[in-house]
Amino acid sequence: MDPAMLDGFPEEDKAKMMGMIEAMQTRDSLKMYNNLVERCFSTCVQSFRRKTLEKDEERCVSKCCEKFLKHSARTSVRFAELNAQSMQQMGGPPQ
């Protein structure tokens, strides 16, 4: 969130709002990370014969994580594009 959007609010309220936003972002990041670990582990790990992953499991986990992170990055970029487009439409055409 752009802190400039909070102009006009008292400093105390701005600080509270930014704290809440940071907490939400941290929570969302942890949820995404936990989802990634659960999904890739469930998909890739087939046995518990050893303490370490087997080579094919390790490759699978790496590929799974890579795909998940690329997807998340692309989704974030697309969301930012749509958000900018929406903001531009709300504010009218640029002068």
Number of domains: 1
Mean pLDDT score: 86
**CATH class assignment:** Mainly Alpha
Low-confidence stretches: none
Net shape: elongated
Structure class: mainly alpha
Largest sheet: none
Gyration radius, rounded: 20 Å
Going by CATH, the homologous superfamily would be Mitochondrial import inner membrane translocase subunit tim13 like domains
Elements, N to C (H/E): HH
Helix tally?
2
Instruction: Please report which band the strand proportion falls in: under 5%, 5-15%, 15-25%, 25-35%, 35-45% or over 45%.
Output: under 5%
The number of strands is 0
CATH fold descriptor: Helix Hairpins
Distance between the termini: 24 Å
Work out the helicity level.
over 70%
Can you tell me the CATH architecture?
Orthogonal Bundle
